[in-house]
Amino acid sequence: MNVAVAVGENEVRYEARSGASEAGPAAKRIVVGYGFWVFLLSDIVMFAAIFAAYAVLAHATAGGPSGMQLFSQASVAIETGCLLASSYTCGLMALAIGSRRYVATYLAALITFVLGVCFLALEVREFAGMIAVGAGPQRSAFLSAFFTLVGCHGLHVTAGLIWLAVMMAQVAVKGFRATVERRLLCFSLFWHALDIVWVWLFTVVYLMGVLS
Amino acid sequence: MTDTQYDRAPGDASALPDVEQGTSSGVLVYTIGLALAVVLTAMSFWVANTSLLWTGGVSLGLTVLAIAQMGIHLVFFLHVTTGPDNTNNVMALAFGVLIVVLVVVGSLLIMADLNDNMMPGAELMNLHMQH
Q: CB–CB of B9 and A34 under 8 A?
């Protein structure tokens, strides 16, 4: 990246515009982004398997409570809002990193983190409420599949929050060096991909689950 | 600006050649994405709760809305484009979508077929309720 700065602006533009094969080996951040993209797709394939299991077992309530009795749409709407807004602030953080603004980066990361924590708190409250009324994962195949699917997404969000905290510590200690920037790029890809999984989750589990 | 944006890899907003374009257009891209996602989410919740629509078509409508929102996220948040730097990412995405469709549709078809074939009588109509 430092080499690219030394070269004149026109040459950089030329390099960016010419075909992939003429431009020589791809920049490291593109290779890193591609590798992480492949990981994300494998993660999404794993989610697809859990989604398939949930869809198959959605009516296997074994006489226990069904989704229509358990799900609260208001809570799901707030959770969706939290995750969508945190995805937005994560994008703003990527822009702040691109223009090397420390305060804006910390601020956007903080808002992203707080919104993620709000999401998790609502989800944990929902889980606790369900277990309290005897609708835990051991009650029926439907509830096992529900807790696996939603819990797996929740675990991903938790991992993302820890990752975000670690990245902010790295920015504070190491500054915006190339390695830190690439890790932050991977983090924002991860966070946006989690939002895509949540879109399918609230559609398939919560909205289709309460249809008559 | 359009030329440089064309060449971006997913999430690649901080590429050095793009620094001079400033962050205002980047903010605009994310804000458009957020607005579209909010509209689609609100529509999903409305479609699920309204009694105006034919109930048989609601799940199909929700699926279409979810696919649309996934597209919005991919384009505006993950910056998937048709640029040369992005060819590999798009190919990987296409393969991922193929696997996801095979796993989900295949599981649903096979299990629905099994349920159909294992229905001996009216009292056992819903196999899942038995255990």
A: yes
State whether CATH 3.30.70.2740 applies to domain A29-209: no
Domain coverage including residue B53: 1-81
Nearest one of B38, B117, B30, B116 to A95, comparing CA atoms: B30
Interatomic CA distance for residues B131 and B125, integer angstroms: 13
Contacts of A112 (CB under 8 A, 6+ apart): A86, A89, A90, A93, A164, A191
Same domain? For B67 and B47 the reply is yes
How confident is the prediction for chain B on average, in pLDDT? 80
Chain A closest-CA separation from residue B109 CA (Å) = 9
Query: What global pTM score does this model have?
Result: 0.83
pLDDT in tens, A30-45: 899 999 999 999 999 9
State whether residue A97 sits within 8 Å of chain B by CB.
yes
Structural tokens at position A154:
């929740």
Q: How many domains is chain B partitioned into structurally? A: 2
Q: Is ipTM strictly over 0.85?
A: no
For residues B95 and B77, membership in a common domain is answered with no
Between residues B91 and A2, the one the model is more confident about? B91
* Interface contact A211-B58, CB threshold 8 A: yes
A97 contact partners, CB below 8 Å, separation of at least 6? A105, A176, A181, A184, B14
Residues from chain B that touch A45, judged by Cβ atoms under 8 A, are: 96, 99-100, 103
Q: How far is A174 from chain B (nearest CA, A)?
A: 18
| Residues B12, B34 within the same domain | yes
